[in-house]
C-alpha cells in the first residue's frame, strides 16, 4: 500500500492552523526537539485519518449509552450527572499536534493557548450525539478539564458553537492550580450523583492513576477493573497523555534528547 502522501495531511492541518491566527510559526532550531516532535507523526496520522479511530469513538460512546441505560433501569437517582473531560474526549485538537510536528516543536503552554484561543476545535465522532442522549434523560453535564482558567472564555465559546449543552461557569470546571481533578469532581459530587466519567486519560476517572510504577500503571487497571467497566468510558488518544509521563518515569525537565532516549529504551522487541 502506498503511503508516501500521508504526511501532506499533517502539512495541511498546520497551514490551516497558521491561517487562523497562530502567532508562533518559527521552526525549532533544536534537532533533538525536531526529532522528538516527528515521533508523534504516526499517532497523529492515525488520529486524523484512520477509520479505526472513528469506529473506536462511536463504539466507546455506544458503550457509555449502554451503561447509562442499565443504571437508569435499575434505580432512580437524585440529581444525576456525567463528568466529561474535554480535549480528545469531546474536542479534536489534532491540528495543534500536526502544527507541532510540522514545525519541529514540542508542547508549550504558549503555543497551546494560541490554539485554544481560536476556539475552532471540532467535535469528535459520537460526542454530540451522546451528550444529547444524556440530556434527554434529564442528566446534568459537567466538563472538568485541565485547560487553564485563562482559557475559560475561548473554551466555552468553542463548546457553545458546536452545540454542547450546559456550557456555563458552574458546569465548565477548568484548572486554576493543580492538575488533580479530585477536588473539582468533589464539587460536582456535593450536589449530584455522578453516574459516569468520560475521558481519554485514566486520571479523568481517578487520580490514583497518576502514580504509575514500573508496570506503567497496568496493575492499577487490573485492580480497578470492575469500577472502570461500570463507571468510565475510555476514549483512544495515542498522541499524548499520562502514559507519556510514565514512560519518562515521571521525571520533569528532561531534554528532548533524554526524552527520546527514554522512549526508545521503553520499547520491547
What does the model show?
The protein has 269 residues and is of the alpha/beta class. The protein has helices spanning 7-19, 31-38, 41-49, 51-74, 94-102, 109-117, 127-136, 152-162, 182-189, 218-223, 225-231, 242-247, 256-266; strands spanning 80-84, 91-92, 122-123, 140-148, 172-175, 193-199, 232-234. The strands form 2 sheets. The protein has a 5-stranded parallel sheet with strand order 5-4-1-6-7, with helices on both faces. A two-stranded antiparallel sheet has the order 2-3. Helix 3 crosses helix 4. It is globular. The relative contact order is 0.15. The mean pLDDT is 93. One of its GO terms (cellular component) is cell outer membrane.
Q: Please compute the radius of gyration using only Cα atoms.
A: 19 Å
As for the CATH topology of the domain at 53-92 and 121-266, it is Rossmann fold
Count the DSSP helices.
Answer: 13
The helicity comes to 40-55%
Q: CATH superfamily assignment of the domain at 53-92 and 121-266?
A: HAD superfamily/HAD-like
Q: How widely separated are the two ends? A: 25 Å
Descriptive labels:
five-stranded parallel β-sheet; globular; 269 residues; 49% helix; alpha/beta; single chain
Topology:
Blueprint: H1 7-19, H2 31-38, H3 41-49, H4 51-74, E1 80-84, E2 91-92, H5 94-102, H6 109-117, E3 122-123, H7 127-136, E4 140-148, H8 152-162, E5 172-175, H9 182-189, E6 193-199, H10 218-223, H11 225-231, E7 232-234, H12 242-247, H13 256-266
Parallel strand pairs: 1-4, 1-6, 4-5, 6-7
Antiparallel strand pairs: 2-3
Helix pairs in contact: 1-5, 2-13, 3-4, 3-5, 4-7
